Each structure stands twice: as C-alpha cells, then as structure tokens.
Amino acid sequence: MRVIRQEEIYRGRVIAVRRDRIDLDGKERTWDVVAHPGAVVVLPVDGDDLLMVRQYRYAAGETLLELVAGGLEPGEDPAEAAQRELQEEAGFRAGRLIRLAEFYSAPGFCTEKLHLFAAEELTPSRLPMDEDEQIELVRLSLDEALRMALAGELRDAKTLAGVLLYARLRGR
To answer: Which intervals hold domain Nudix hydrolase (predicted)?
Structure first.
C-alpha cells in the first residue's frame, strides 16, 4: 500500500477530514479518513463502586451513561491525560492507574485510538470542566454495571469495553 495524495477537506476543533488517494496492490483507491488525535477513557473505582458520567450526546441524540473520557492534547502522555480528565469530570485524582487496553474506535474510517484505564485509590481533586460539558456523576456497583452491560443498557462502546475488561480483571 502506498499513499499517492492526501487532501484535507475539513478541519474542525477536534477532527480533520481528509481524502486519501492510495495505491493498493496496483489499483488506485480513494479513502475518506477522519483524523483524530486520540483519547483517554477512565473507569474510576471508589471502594466497591464505579463512577460514571451521564451526559447528553448531541451526535447520538440521547443521554448516555459513560466512563470518564476526553481527547489527548498533542504530545500528551495518555496517563497524564487520564488524570486530567478524571479531575475535570469526576473530581478525583488516582493514586493508581491500571492500563486496561488500547483500541481504535472505528478503524474503517477514523484514526482515533482510545487508551483505557481503571483509576483506583481516588482522592478528591477538581479541575474546571470544559465549558460545553454538563454531566452528572453516577455511582454504581461493579455487579450493577456488569448487569447493565450484559442487558444492553450501556450503549457506549468504550464504556462496555471498560466495564467488561475491569470485571474480568476482578474475577467477575
């Protein structure tokens, strides 16, 4: 595979869209790509409870229960970004971060790589939230979150991955 040409079509606050022309086994193809700097996902664990955020997601058109998450700044270490997002959205800092996984959100068209962490040994520490965030912090037991995941009540992929991976880590 060889890239022949890349043309940026759109650049927004978070993403860029480009049209790539590639040579794939001697045949030219056009590929539309959403370029995203990547993000972190954090599953805060407070004693026996998990903390999640409930927020309206405009693109989905509904309110979702999700893990703490946010974009990476250019060159930012994912563990540092995880601490920042945890402070902004949940009001805690983690004494211990456990790297659960790295995965792509939609590799067929998007470059976004998600870095998933569990955050334990929480201590209160608040940073200001982004202006456009209106979130409610929700406390659930691991068993309740696992039940919701298996019943189809958690509809966000990164949240499903986080709950299922953490449950497996803890022998559930």
So the answer is: 34-162
